[in-house]
Amino acid sequence: MPPIKQEAHTLIDALPEAAGWDDVARVVDDARFREAVREGIEAADGGAFAGPERVKAMFARWGIDVAA
């Protein structure tokens, strides 16, 4: 994985010349999302994930019925 500064330059360089701050924010948000997904997949591959009962309990605490 390239250093964050190099990756940021790559993202900015890919924007059109007429890009505005909203475009910059969008590519940063997209990059953060992709990184979070990558980290989540890596954690799940390493066995760090919540089982079905734990997930149901978490949703129940939020008042969401997931019984199906």
Brief summary:
This protein has about 70 residues and is an all-alpha fold. It is built from 3 helices and no strands. Helices cover about 65% and strands about 0% of the residues.
Structure description:
By secondary structure, this protein is mainly α. The chain has one domain (4-61). It contains three helices and no strands.
The average pLDDT value, as a whole number, equals 91
How would a textbook summarize the main sheet?
none
Structural class: mainly alpha
First-residue to last-residue Cα separation: 41 Å
- What is the count of distinct domains? 1
Gyration radius, in Å: 18 Å
Q: SSE string, helix = H, strand = E?
A: HHH
Poorly predicted ranges: none
Approximately how much helix is present in the residues?
A: 55-70%
What is the overall silhouette?
elongated
Report strand %: under 5%
E-strand count: 0
Specify the number of helices: 3
